[in-house]
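User: quick one, fold this
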Amino acid sequence: METSQDLLYLSATGNRFAVADAIGGPAPADPAALARELGRRGAVDGLLLLLPPASGGDCRMVLYNVDGSRPEACGNGLRCLARLAVTNGHVAGDELVVETDAGPRRLRVLRRGAEIVAVRAEMGVPVVEAVRATLECASGRVEVGRVSMGNPHCVLFVDDVERAPLETLGAELERHPAFPNRTNVEFVQLDGEGLRVRIHERGVGETDSCGTGVAAAAAIALRRGLVRSPVAIETRGGRLQVIWDGTGTLHLEGP
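Assistant:
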Protein backbone atom coordinates (compact mmCIF):
# COMPACT_ATOMS: atom_id res chain seq x y z
CA MET A 1 0.00 0.00 0.00
CA GLU A 2 1.28 3.46 -0.84
CA THR A 3 -0.17 6.90 -0.27
CA SER A 4 -0.36 9.78 -2.70
CA GLN A 5 -2.23 12.97 -1.79
CA ASP A 6 -5.57 11.80 -0.31
CA LEU A 7 -5.64 8.46 -2.16
CA LEU A 8 -4.34 5.03 -1.25
CA TYR A 9 -3.30 2.58 -3.95
CA LEU A 10 -4.13 -1.08 -3.39
CA SER A 11 -3.97 -4.18 -5.57
CA ALA A 12 -5.71 -7.55 -5.34
CA THR A 13 -4.29 -10.18 -7.75
CA GLY A 14 -3.31 -7.41 -10.12
CA ASN A 15 -6.60 -5.51 -9.94
CA ARG A 16 -5.41 -1.97 -9.12
CA PHE A 17 -7.51 0.57 -7.27
CA ALA A 18 -7.17 4.08 -5.97
CA VAL A 19 -9.08 4.30 -2.69
CA ALA A 20 -10.42 7.36 -0.92
CA ASP A 21 -11.07 6.77 2.78
CA ALA A 22 -14.09 9.05 3.18
CA ILE A 23 -14.67 7.82 6.73
CA GLY A 24 -11.30 9.12 7.90
CA GLY A 25 -11.25 12.10 5.53
CA PRO A 26 -13.15 13.95 2.80
CA ALA A 27 -14.59 12.27 -0.28
CA PRO A 28 -13.49 13.50 -3.74
CA ALA A 29 -15.69 16.33 -4.97
CA ASP A 30 -16.18 14.72 -8.41
CA PRO A 31 -15.26 11.02 -8.19
CA ALA A 32 -16.31 10.23 -11.77
CA ALA A 33 -13.97 12.92 -13.14
CA LEU A 34 -11.18 11.76 -10.85
CA ALA A 35 -11.64 8.17 -12.04
CA ARG A 36 -11.39 9.31 -15.67
CA GLU A 37 -8.22 11.27 -14.89
CA LEU A 38 -6.66 8.25 -13.18
CA GLY A 39 -7.62 6.18 -16.21
CA ARG A 40 -5.93 8.61 -18.58
CA ARG A 41 -2.76 8.21 -16.52
CA GLY A 42 -3.07 4.41 -16.71
CA ALA A 43 -2.66 4.29 -12.96
CA VAL A 44 -5.56 2.06 -11.88
CA ASP A 45 -8.53 -0.04 -12.97
CA GLY A 46 -10.97 1.93 -10.82
CA LEU A 47 -11.61 4.38 -7.99
CA LEU A 48 -13.08 3.06 -4.72
CA LEU A 49 -14.80 5.19 -2.11
CA LEU A 50 -14.84 3.90 1.49
CA LEU A 51 -17.90 5.61 2.97
CA PRO A 52 -19.85 5.55 6.23
CA PRO A 53 -22.69 3.00 6.29
CA ALA A 54 -26.17 4.03 5.18
CA SER A 55 -28.31 0.97 5.99
CA GLY A 56 -26.94 -1.11 8.84
CA GLY A 57 -23.55 -2.28 7.53
CA ASP A 58 -20.11 -1.46 8.89
CA CYS A 59 -19.18 0.72 5.91
CA ARG A 60 -20.19 1.35 2.31
CA MET A 61 -18.39 0.90 -1.02
CA VAL A 62 -18.89 2.92 -4.19
CA LEU A 63 -16.81 2.16 -7.29
CA TYR A 64 -16.12 4.22 -10.40
CA ASN A 65 -14.59 2.68 -13.52
CA VAL A 66 -11.93 4.61 -15.41
CA ASP A 67 -14.52 5.71 -17.98
CA GLY A 68 -16.47 7.39 -15.17
CA SER A 69 -19.23 4.77 -15.08
CA ARG A 70 -20.40 3.27 -11.78
CA PRO A 71 -20.63 -0.55 -11.74
CA GLU A 72 -22.83 -2.39 -9.27
CA ALA A 73 -20.26 -4.83 -7.91
CA CYS A 74 -16.52 -5.55 -7.74
CA GLY A 75 -15.12 -8.55 -5.90
CA ASN A 76 -11.47 -7.55 -5.73
CA GLY A 77 -12.34 -3.96 -4.92
CA LEU A 78 -14.60 -5.21 -2.16
CA ARG A 79 -11.74 -7.26 -0.70
CA CYS A 80 -9.36 -4.28 -0.88
CA LEU A 81 -11.92 -2.08 0.85
CA ALA A 82 -12.44 -4.62 3.64
CA ARG A 83 -8.68 -4.79 4.27
CA LEU A 84 -8.49 -1.01 4.45
CA ALA A 85 -11.49 -0.71 6.76
CA VAL A 86 -9.90 -3.19 9.18
CA THR A 87 -6.40 -1.69 8.89
CA ASN A 88 -7.66 1.86 9.47
CA GLY A 89 -9.67 0.80 12.52
CA HIS A 90 -13.11 1.56 11.10
CA VAL A 91 -14.45 -1.82 12.25
CA ALA A 92 -13.87 -3.93 15.34
CA GLY A 93 -12.52 -7.42 14.65
CA ASP A 94 -11.82 -9.19 11.39
CA GLU A 95 -15.39 -9.59 10.10
CA LEU A 96 -17.48 -6.85 8.56
CA VAL A 97 -20.46 -6.13 6.33
CA VAL A 98 -19.90 -3.76 3.42
CA GLU A 99 -22.87 -2.11 1.75
CA THR A 100 -22.64 -2.13 -2.07
CA ASP A 101 -24.91 -1.18 -4.96
CA ALA A 102 -25.55 -4.93 -5.37
CA GLY A 103 -26.53 -5.38 -1.71
CA PRO A 104 -24.69 -6.05 1.57
CA ARG A 105 -21.64 -8.31 1.47
CA ARG A 106 -20.05 -10.04 4.47
CA LEU A 107 -16.25 -10.38 4.51
CA ARG A 108 -13.53 -11.77 6.73
CA VAL A 109 -9.85 -10.86 6.68
CA LEU A 110 -7.53 -13.85 7.08
CA ARG A 111 -4.28 -13.54 8.97
CA ARG A 112 -0.95 -15.30 9.37
CA GLY A 113 -0.11 -14.23 12.87
CA ALA A 114 -0.89 -10.52 12.94
CA GLU A 115 -0.42 -10.04 9.18
CA ILE A 116 -3.44 -9.89 6.89
CA VAL A 117 -2.69 -12.28 4.01
CA ALA A 118 -6.09 -12.76 2.33
CA VAL A 119 -9.72 -11.73 2.38
CA ARG A 120 -12.74 -14.00 1.93
CA ALA A 121 -15.90 -12.36 0.59
CA GLU A 122 -19.52 -13.41 0.28
CA MET A 123 -20.42 -12.49 -3.28
CA GLY A 124 -24.16 -13.15 -3.12
CA VAL A 125 -26.08 -15.84 -5.03
CA PRO A 126 -25.15 -16.02 -8.73
CA VAL A 127 -28.11 -15.56 -11.07
CA VAL A 128 -27.37 -17.92 -13.96
CA GLU A 129 -29.44 -16.57 -16.84
CA ALA A 130 -28.16 -19.11 -19.39
CA VAL A 131 -25.65 -21.94 -19.06
CA ARG A 132 -25.43 -21.96 -22.85
CA ALA A 133 -26.65 -19.25 -25.22
CA THR A 134 -25.72 -18.33 -28.80
CA LEU A 135 -24.91 -14.79 -29.87
CA GLU A 136 -24.34 -13.51 -33.40
CA CYS A 137 -21.05 -11.61 -33.70
CA ALA A 138 -19.01 -10.19 -36.56
CA SER A 139 -16.85 -13.33 -36.57
CA GLY A 140 -19.85 -15.69 -36.48
CA ARG A 141 -21.89 -17.42 -33.81
CA VAL A 142 -20.44 -17.54 -30.29
CA GLU A 143 -21.60 -19.82 -27.47
CA VAL A 144 -21.60 -18.09 -24.09
CA GLY A 145 -22.84 -18.46 -20.56
CA ARG A 146 -24.71 -15.53 -19.01
CA VAL A 147 -24.68 -14.84 -15.28
CA SER A 148 -25.21 -11.90 -12.95
CA MET A 149 -23.03 -11.38 -9.89
CA GLY A 150 -24.92 -8.17 -9.15
CA ASN A 151 -23.34 -7.00 -12.41
CA PRO A 152 -23.61 -8.69 -15.85
CA HIS A 153 -21.14 -11.28 -17.18
CA CYS A 154 -20.68 -13.14 -20.45
CA VAL A 155 -18.51 -16.28 -20.21
CA LEU A 156 -16.79 -17.99 -23.17
CA PHE A 157 -14.78 -21.23 -23.03
CA VAL A 158 -11.71 -21.35 -25.26
CA ASP A 159 -8.83 -23.75 -25.86
CA ASP A 160 -6.13 -21.19 -25.05
CA VAL A 161 -6.86 -17.92 -23.22
CA GLU A 162 -3.55 -16.42 -24.33
CA ARG A 163 -4.58 -16.72 -27.98
CA ALA A 164 -8.21 -15.70 -27.47
CA PRO A 165 -9.32 -12.56 -29.41
CA LEU A 166 -9.96 -10.60 -26.23
CA GLU A 167 -9.33 -7.13 -27.62
CA THR A 168 -11.74 -7.49 -30.54
CA LEU A 169 -14.35 -10.01 -29.38
CA GLY A 170 -14.33 -8.82 -25.79
CA ALA A 171 -15.01 -5.25 -26.87
CA GLU A 172 -17.74 -6.38 -29.29
CA LEU A 173 -19.50 -8.53 -26.70
CA GLU A 174 -19.33 -5.77 -24.08
CA ARG A 175 -21.63 -3.68 -26.29
CA HIS A 176 -23.62 -6.51 -27.90
CA PRO A 177 -27.35 -5.74 -28.27
CA ALA A 178 -28.05 -8.67 -25.93
CA PHE A 179 -26.59 -6.58 -23.09
CA PRO A 180 -28.36 -3.20 -23.01
CA ASN A 181 -26.27 -2.08 -19.99
CA ARG A 182 -23.09 -3.57 -21.48
CA THR A 183 -21.36 -6.57 -19.91
CA ASN A 184 -18.10 -7.92 -18.54
CA VAL A 185 -16.59 -10.69 -20.66
CA GLU A 186 -14.56 -13.67 -19.41
CA PHE A 187 -12.47 -15.95 -21.63
CA VAL A 188 -12.06 -19.25 -19.77
CA GLN A 189 -9.75 -22.22 -20.29
CA LEU A 190 -9.91 -25.53 -18.42
CA ASP A 191 -6.63 -25.99 -16.54
CA GLY A 192 -6.46 -29.41 -14.91
CA GLU A 193 -9.08 -29.35 -12.16
CA GLY A 194 -9.20 -25.55 -12.19
CA LEU A 195 -9.62 -22.66 -14.60
CA ARG A 196 -7.48 -20.03 -16.29
CA VAL A 197 -9.27 -16.74 -17.03
CA ARG A 198 -8.70 -13.51 -18.92
CA ILE A 199 -11.11 -10.65 -18.42
CA HIS A 200 -12.43 -7.80 -20.53
CA GLU A 201 -14.01 -5.54 -17.93
CA ARG A 202 -16.93 -3.29 -18.80
CA GLY A 203 -15.81 0.33 -18.88
CA VAL A 204 -12.14 -0.60 -18.44
CA GLY A 205 -10.87 -3.11 -21.02
CA GLU A 206 -8.57 -5.98 -20.12
CA THR A 207 -7.66 -6.20 -16.44
CA ASP A 208 -5.23 -8.57 -14.76
CA SER A 209 -8.02 -9.84 -12.53
CA CYS A 210 -11.70 -9.34 -11.71
CA GLY A 211 -13.39 -10.81 -8.66
CA THR A 212 -16.93 -10.90 -10.02
CA GLY A 213 -15.58 -12.14 -13.38
CA VAL A 214 -13.76 -15.03 -11.72
CA ALA A 215 -16.92 -15.83 -9.75
CA ALA A 216 -19.03 -15.77 -12.92
CA ALA A 217 -16.58 -18.03 -14.79
CA ALA A 218 -16.60 -20.54 -11.92
CA ALA A 219 -20.40 -20.46 -11.67
CA ILE A 220 -20.86 -21.36 -15.34
CA ALA A 221 -18.11 -24.02 -15.22
CA LEU A 222 -19.70 -25.57 -12.13
CA ARG A 223 -23.16 -25.55 -13.70
CA ARG A 224 -21.73 -27.25 -16.80
CA GLY A 225 -20.10 -29.90 -14.62
CA LEU A 226 -16.58 -29.05 -15.82
CA VAL A 227 -15.07 -28.50 -12.34
CA ARG A 228 -15.83 -29.11 -8.67
CA SER A 229 -15.93 -26.68 -5.78
CA PRO A 230 -13.65 -25.27 -4.48
CA VAL A 231 -12.34 -24.01 -7.82
CA ALA A 232 -8.78 -22.67 -8.18
CA ILE A 233 -8.66 -19.93 -10.80
CA GLU A 234 -5.53 -18.42 -12.32
CA THR A 235 -5.69 -14.86 -13.60
CA ARG A 236 -2.84 -12.83 -15.04
CA GLY A 237 -2.48 -11.20 -11.63
CA GLY A 238 -2.59 -14.28 -9.42
CA ARG A 239 -4.71 -17.09 -8.03
CA LEU A 240 -8.19 -16.87 -6.54
CA GLN A 241 -10.48 -19.53 -5.12
CA VAL A 242 -14.24 -19.81 -5.56
CA ILE A 243 -16.44 -21.88 -3.26
CA TRP A 244 -20.04 -22.49 -4.38
CA ASP A 245 -22.55 -25.29 -3.80
CA GLY A 246 -24.52 -24.41 -6.93
CA THR A 247 -27.49 -22.83 -5.15
CA GLY A 248 -26.50 -20.60 -2.22
CA THR A 249 -24.04 -17.80 -1.58
CA LEU A 250 -20.79 -17.89 -3.54
CA HIS A 251 -17.54 -17.14 -1.71
CA LEU A 252 -14.40 -15.60 -3.22
CA GLU A 253 -11.04 -15.84 -1.46
CA GLY A 254 -7.61 -14.56 -2.36
CA PRO A 255 -4.67 -12.32 -1.46
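User: anything notable?
Assistant: The longest strand covers residues 127-137.
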